[in-house]
Specification:
This protein has about 300 residues and is an all-alpha fold. It has helices at about 5-30, 35-60, 70-95, 100-105, 110-120, 125-145, 155-180, 180-200, 205-215, 215-245, 245-255, 255-265, 275-295. It is globular, with a radius of gyration of 18 Å.
Length: about 300
């Protein structure tokens, strides 16, 4: 039986991230409305418990011998992506809705690519450049409606800030990820993000208000599936994609989450999706396949 190369495994995990994260976004949109900080605290607490159990039961050896410098980098990555990025994302999602967030999310792959070129010195092949362009153009076509107003104000700023925080967070973690076991690296990021969020809210009444979500059975039941998919499983897949293939390649394949979110919005949430968005989805998928084929050929 043939085994996957690191690049193939990374690309497979990156596409898996897109599918799982899209399902989590749909669950968050149709769930009980709670504050962004409370929702983030709940899903990160659940994810931390699950990843800690996974580490103890499946890969305890990964927790041994991690250099302190790598722990610090992974912790910083977690603070940027989880304590800051996720809270900003959820706040923007509440203000703008899934469709506009899908449009803003088009900035993710270019941001990761730029950060990877500047921080990691990753090269840009012709196939990658073409695939990236197709994905970005496809996603803009898929989420753009003629005559629609641009989102303005706090929602736009929050959404863009979230994307930058998450993208920079994962790129700076790439070297440490390559030297650290996947489950252990995920655990460090999650724990750091959870602790940082709790410390930020500790001096105020926000922390107490955020903890009320754990006592709200309806909200907890609504958020639990999204926490399992959107924090525990998607983070393992997301970091795995970044660990095993180029950060820029993983980012473009991650970007196809917008296509899956559009499918979920149409067939799960019942939102109208015009034909223009389906054509955009075709372009985005073509771009993702171009990147994947280019990576396999390399």
């Amino acid at each position: 039986m043939a085994t996957l190369t690191d690049d193939q495994l990374g690309m497979t995990m990156a596409v898996g991230t897109a599918v799982v994260w899209s399902a989590a976004v749909i669950l968050l949109r149709r769930g009980v409305e709670v504050g962004a900080a409370a929702a983030n605290l709940f899903k990160n607490a659940v994810g931390t418990i699950l990843i800690a159990a996974t580490l103890v039961l499946a890969a305890p050896e990964q927790a041994l011998g991690i250099p302190l410098a790598d722990v610090a980098i992974l912790a910083l990555s977690g603070i940027l992506g989880i304590a800051i990025g996720d809270v900003l994302f959820l706040a923007a999602l509440r203000r703008l809705g899934a469709s506009w967030m899908a449009l803003l999310d088009c900035a993710y792959a270019p941001t990761v690519v730029l950060a990877a070129v500047l921080w990691l010195g990753e090269p840009l092949s012709r196939g990658f450049a073409l695939g990236s362009a197709l994905v970005v153009v496809g996603l803009v076509v898929a989420t753009w409606r003629r005559g629609a107003r641009e989102p303005v104000g706090a929602g736009l700023l929050l959404g863009l800030a979230a994307i930058v925080a998450v993208a920079v967070g994962v790129v700076i973690a790439k070297p440490a990820l390559e030297r650290t076991g996947l489950i252990a690296a995920t655990a460090i990021r999650l724990c750091a993000g959870l602790v940082a969020q709790a410390l930020v809210h500790l001096p105020s009444a926000r922390l107490r208000r955020s903890f009320t979500v754990f006592r709200n059975r309806e909200a907890a039941r609504s958020l639990l599936p999204a926490a399992v998919l959107g924090t525990w499983l998607s983070m393992i897949l997301w970091l795995g994609g970044t660990k095993y293939t180029a950060a820029s390649t993983a980012a473009v394949l991650n970007q196809t989450a917008t296509v899956f979110t559009l499918l979920g919005a149409r067939f799960v949430l019942g939102e109208p999706v015009p034909a223009r968005r389906w054509w955009g989805a075709v372009l985005a998928i073509a771009g993702a396949l171009t990147v994947a084929i280019d990576g396999l050929g390399g």
